[in-house]
Every structure is written in C-alpha cells, then in structure tokens.
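Good morning C.,

I know you're traveling, so I'll keep this short. The sequence:
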Amino acid sequence: MKYGRSRAGIAGAVLMALLLAGCGGGGAADRTRSLEAFTPDQIYERGEYELSQNRTGDAAYYFSEIERLYPYSSWAERALIMQAYALHEGRNYAESRAAAQRYLDFYPAEEDAAYAQYLLALSYYDQIDEVGRDQGLTFQALQALRGVIEQYPDSEYATAAVLKFDLAFDHLAGKEMEVGRYYLKRKHYAAAITRFRVVVEDFQTTTHTAEALHRLVEAYLSLGLDAEAQTAGAILGYNYKSTEWYEASYRLLTGRGLEMTARGDNWLASIYRQSIKGEWL
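The tokens, ready to paste straight into the viewer:
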C-alpha cells in the first residue's frame, strides 16, 4: 500500500482539522457543502488526520467524499483504497469489502490492486476468530486469499496471504475435528468416522491429521473393525511417530494384542500405500 499516514500529511491535516472544525455543526448537508470548498488533497489530509486519531468512521467519510466530489482525479484512486483500509480498521467488513471491490473494478492494473484484493480477503479472514463460527466465511476467505496468491504472486502481500490461507485451511479441519469428537463422545461412531476421514483425505497437510488418525483408531476399535484401526495406526507410525497421538494409538492397539500394521483393502490401506510411495504429503 503506497499511501500511508505520512508525518507531513498528518501535520498538514492538523491545520485542516482546525479549518474544518466548524463544518460539523449544521448537519450532513452543511458538512458536504463545506467540503466542496476544499481541494481533494486537503480533504485527503483530513482523512489521514482522522485515521491518526483512530476515528476510522470519520476517516472513511472524508475519503469517500473525495471519491464523490472528484471522481476522475488521481486523488479519487488514492482515497478509495484508503477508504477500504479505514473501514477495515473500524471493523466495518462488508463496507470495506465493497470499497476494495470497487477499487479492483475501477483500477485493476494499478499498484494498489494487490492490496485491495488482500483487504477484500481480510474482510472475511478477520471474522474467523473461533472454530464454532459459520464456515462459509472461511471458504470465502480461502477463495479471496487464493486470488491474492494467484493474481499477485510477486506482490508484498502474497507471502502473508499464503500464511493466512494455511491458517484458514487448518481452521476448516478444526471444525471437522470438533464435530467428529462430538459424535465420538456420544458413541455415534459411523458419523465420527465420516468427519475424521474428511480430515485425513482432504486436510492432510493441516495440524489435525495426526489426531484424526488416532480418533479413527478409537472409533474403528469400538466398532470391532480391527484391520481399519491397525491401518490408521500404521499411517500414524509412518508419518507421525513422534506425536502424542501415535503413542496413544500404540497403547490402544498393543493393549488388545494388535500390531500397528496395514491390513485389508480399505480406504486407509490405500492412503498407507500412497504414504509409502511418497504421495502422502
């Protein structure tokens, strides 16, 4: 993002604050008429000043007024990305996303297009703060983050987008684990296995895979499906031998006189063979 709160800009904005201080007493219409008397750079400085004071709503207003009053100026482009930023800082995620999308629609080839796409992704990502929330936000965040990674791979935001993509992906796996544990605790083994299988097959690069395999050992042993349980243990031994989940599965299986070895022709046996061939990760 090339437009920041420069010290010079903020200093100038302090003067603007004094000039515009008397503009707010007559309502929104009077404030708009007063702003029309100022140049776009002066209004922009006022927006920067409001940001420096953490008044994000006021900052967004001033930046939006530049877009309205001077729509074809270079200041309108600057103000639009700053409007999206101010709205995001104020946690007005839907409005921030709309402003960022508008920037992408109007200025797709400009330098700040990458930042606009990143802000759009953050408008979803920053609401994923606990596993129990609606996973629709997570899917939308993943899609938008992929846009940053694929469309702007050389931008300064690509690395951060990759990190957040991995975290969001891990979050989805965490949701599957949460539901799977719920079913397992209530002895709904088939339903639990379905959830843990999703993690093992679709989220194998996340931090939840080792636990999912252990939970499969538990669930399959409870159903008397020893071959499946042993195979899940074998995968743990091959990929996650240093984890607590391997130790827990080892105790469960050996306690029943079972070895941690792949058996049968089940879906886990197929994954085990892929592991041996180096296709697991």
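Safe travels,
E.
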